[in-house]
Amino acid sequence: MTLASTDSRSIERLRGVLPDVEIAALAPLIEEIDEWKRERNAVVLAHNYMTPDIFHGVADLKGDSLALAHMAAATDADVIVMAGVHFMAETAKIVNEAKTVLIPDLRAGCSLAESITGADIRLLRERYPGVPVVTYVNTSAEVKAESDICCTSGNAVQVVESLGVDRVIFLPDQYLGRWVATQTDVDIILWEGSCEVHERFTAEELRVYRGTHPGIQIIAHPECPPDVLAEADFVGSTSGMINWVKSERPKQVVMVTECSMADNVAVETPDVEFVKPCNLCPHMKRITLENIRDSMRDMKHAVTVDPAVAGRARLAVERMLEVQV
Fold first, then answer.
1. String of b and e for 226-258 (b: at least 16 CB within 10 Å)?
2. Which of 173, 155, 171 is CA-nearest to residue 229?
3. Same domain, yes or no, for 86 and 119?
4. Gap between the Cα atoms of 222 and 173, Å rounded
5. What's the half-sphere exposure (Cβ side, CA atoms, 13 Å) at 287?
6. CATH, residue 244
7. Which one-letter DSSP state was computed for residue 15?
8. If DSSP codes are grouped into helix, strand and coil, which group holds residue 190?
9. How far lies 189's CA from each of 131, 167, 324, in Å?
10. pTM of the predicted model, to two decimals?
11. Residues 23 and 62 in one domain
């Protein structure tokens, strides 16, 4: 995967996304970022939860967790800048051991990833001997290293069923795990972790949207609580929701996930009206144009993973990437 020329392209991509006056104000900073990308042979990977100036502007590659894992493994850049949270940068480093992986802000963590440790998994293995561990990619390298295979929200069901067993330990998102349990006959042992963004949505607020917007379609991420998913017309991963909007083209839609994603999808589906229940991820929002620039300029903050941990974690990620969805 080769890097494209960035001459003014980042700015041009923002036409129609942001007001011209805002683009003009950001242009010097964006041009500086493009210069540093050329200087460092760097590529910016951006998650769907990034703000539009990053997602549509300076990002070279963008997508959900699974897409970013694939992209990180395929890029030929010397430097990978992860416009996302720390576990994503760790995953990029795990599959690109020889490359420099930078995260613009070390505080860009994840409440879900912080809900479990490697020691917790070792205790679970003692309690459930022989039961394989399926771990959501929203976890640290240490946790991945203790797991048999990773998954994303988009391939979780397929990963669970690919193991050919009657029972699995599914970590750490309790709501994603409960949703997976409704989609398969495999017995799911849960961990009580959750995402601080998705767990704040309620079924009551969605019923209000239905009452005030007749005919509106509600689509939800499976990290949401079960009562929220019960109110949804469609439940799917980040990429699943995006594809649903693009194919179904509803007149009005509520996208029940981090609200910057709705901003980004709206650019590509101008005929769809997004009614936005806006829950922002405070960790994703630590990534800014300014610290992306600073990260490449100063080559900070380099993500490191202990080689012994990385090797074991890499196996779990590679097993995930081998599962056909």
1. eebbebbebbbbbbbbbebbeeeebeebbbbbb
2. 173
3. no
4. 10
5. 35
6. 3.40.50.10800
7. B
8. strand
9. 9, 8, 23
10. 0.85
11. yes
CB atoms closer than 10 angstroms to residue 4: 9
Token reading at 247:
């194919």
Q: Give the H or E element holding residue 253.
A: strand 252-256
**Preceding omega of 172 cis (within 30 degrees of 0):** yes
| DSSP sequence for 272-318 | SEEP---B--TTGGG--HHHHHHHHHHT-PBP---HHHHHHHHHHHH
C-alpha torsion sign, points 237, 242, 246, 249: positive
pLDDT tens digits, residue range 41-57?
999 999 988 999 999 99
The pLDDT score that the predictor gives to residue 175 is 96
Q: Are residues 89 and 57 in the same domain?
A: yes
With b meaning 16 or more CB within 10 Å and e meaning fewer, what string describes 183-197? eeebebbbbebbbeb
Contacts of residue 221, defined as CB under 8 A and 6 or more positions apart, other chains included, come to: 153, 198, 235, 236, 237, 238, 241, 256, 257
Q: Tell me, yes or no, whether 14 and 103 share the same domain.
A: yes
DSSP state of 55: I
Domain membership of residue 36 as a residue range = 9-108+284-298
Average pLDDT of the residues of the chain: 91
Q: What number is the average pLDDT over the span 269-283? A: 87
| Number of domains observed in the structure of the chain | 3
Statement to judge: residues 189 and 207 lie in one domain: no
